[in-house]
Write a structure and sequence with these properties.
By secondary structure, the protein is α/β, with parallel strands linked by helices. The chain folds into 2 domains: about 160 residues, 3-Layer(aba) Sandwich (Rossmann fold), CATH 3.40.50.720; about 90 residues, ProC C-terminal domain-like fold (Orthogonal Bundle). The chain is about 50% helix and about 15% strand. The protein contains 11 helices and 8 strands. The chain has an 8-stranded mixed sheet, sandwiched between helices. Helix 1 packs parallel to helix 2 and helix 6 packs across helix 11. The radius of gyration is 21 Å and the shape is elongated. The two termini are about 35 Å apart. The structure holds NADP nicotinamide-adenine-dinucleotide phosphate (NAP).
C-alpha cells in the first residue's frame, strides 16, 4: 500500500505533483495529507478537493509514504518535526536536490528512502523523474508516485543523481533562458516585442512538440530544416561554433553538478 501519502512541503515542486495527481485522478484526495506552514494555491486546491492540510500530529502515523519536498536547506528541520509521529514502516521519498539517501534515512529513524529528481511539468502530466533507491519497495513506491506524472527514469547509482539534477531537474530553466534570449535577439533584429515573443515561443514549443510526436533524432530534425548555404546554417555556424552551445552546455551542466555536490555535503 502506497497511500495515505504525506507531503512535507507543498511549494513549487510539491504543488506541481499535487496538481498532476489531481488532474490524473492518480490517488483519492482523501488519501493525501499535506504539511506546509504557508500553503500555496496547489495545496489549497488539493484541500478543496478533499486532501487534509496540516493534520494534527497523531494523524501522521497513518502515512504509508512520506514525500520530502521542502528546500534542501530546510530538510532536517522538516524531518525532525515529522519523524517522531510516523509509523515505523513508513517509506520516505525525497525530492530534495543533493541530499543523500543515507542522511535522509538516518534523520527518519532508519526508514527506507528513495530519491527522486522531478520537474515541474509534472503538473500537466509531462514531468520527468529520475529515481534512485537501494531498497526495492522504496523504488517501487517512488515509481508509483511519479508514473502518473510523466516519464520515470531509474538510475543505477546514487552518484548519478547529481548528473540527473543538472540534465533534467534544472533543465527547464535552461529552455526558458534560451527562449528569453531568442526573444531579446528578435527585438534587437527589429521585431516589435509582442511579435518577437509570439514567434520565439510558438516556434520553440512547436519544435519541441514535433520532436516528441515524431520520435525523430534531434540531429535529423535539425538537418531537415538546414539547407546548405542558407540562413539556418549561418546561425548554426555561430551556435555550434567553438564558443557555442556544446561548450556552454558542458560548462553549465558541470556547474550544476558541482552545486548539487555542495548542497549534499
Ligand atoms: N522547483 C523545482 O523545479 C524543483 C525541481 C526538482 C526538485 N526540486 C526540489 O524540490 C524541493 C522543494 O523545492 P520548491 O522549489 O518546491 O521549494 P518551495 O517552493 O520553497 O516549497 C517548499 C515548501 O515547503 C514549506 N516548508 C518549509 N519548512 C517546512 C516544514 N518544516 N514542514 C513542512 N513544510 C515546510 C515552505 O514554506 P515556506 O515558503 O513558508 O518556507 C514551502 O511552501 C527542493 O528540495 C528542491 O531541490 C525542485
Amino acid at each position: 500500500m502506497i497511500t495515505p501519502i504525506l507531503m512535507l512541503g507543498a511549494g513549487r515542486m510539491g504543488g506541481a505533483m499535487l496538481d498532476g495527481w489531481l488532474a490524473a485522478g492518480a490517488f483519492a484526495p482523501a488519501d493525501l495529507m499535506i504539511r506546509d506552514p504557508a500553503p500555496g494555491p496547489s495545496a489549497l486546491a488539493a484541500q478543496a478537493a478533499g486532501a487534509t492540510l496540516n493534520p494534527p500530529e497523531p494523524e501522521l502515523a497513518r502515512a504509508r509514504t512520506v514525500v520530502l519536498a521542502v528546500k534542501p536547506q530546510l530538510w532536517r528541520e522538516a524531518a525532525a518535526e515529522a519523524e517522531p509521529h510516523l509509523a515505523p514502516d513508513a517509506v520516505v521519498v525525497s525530492i530534495a536536490a543533493g541530499v543523500k539517501s543515507a542522511d535522509i534515512s538516518q534523520a527518519f529513524g532508519g526508514r527506507a528512502v528513495a530519491r527522486v529528481m522531478p520537474t515541474t511539468a509534472a503538473a500537466i502530466g509531462q514531468g520527468t523523474a529520475s529515481l534512485f533507491a537501494d531498497d526495492a519497495d522504496a523504488l517501487a513506491r517512488a515509481s508509483a508516485l511519479f508514473a502518473p506524472l510523466g516519464v520515470v527514469t531509474p538510475l543505477a547509482d546514487e552518484g548519478l543523481m547529481h548528473a540527473a539534477t543538472a540534465v533534467s531537474g534544472s533543465a527547464p530553466a535552461y529552455l526558458y533562458a534560451f527562449i528569453e534570449a531568442l526573444e531579446a535577439a528578435g527585438i534587437t533584429a527589429g521585431l516589435a516585442p509582442q511579435d518577437a515573443r509570439q514567434l520565439a515561443r510558438s516556434t520553440l514549443t512547436g519544435a519541441a512538440a514535433l520532436l516528441a510526436r515524431t520520435g525523430e533524432e534531434p540531429t535529423e530534425l535539425r538537418r531537415q530544416v538546414t539547407s546548405p548555404g542558407g540562413t539556418t546554417e549561418a546561425a548554426l555556424n555561430v551556435l555550434l561554433g567553438p564558443k557555442g552551445l556544446q561548450v556552454l552546455m558542458r560548462e553549465a551542466v558541470a556547474a550544476a553538478v558541482r552545486r548539487s555536490k555542495e548542497l549534499g555535503s
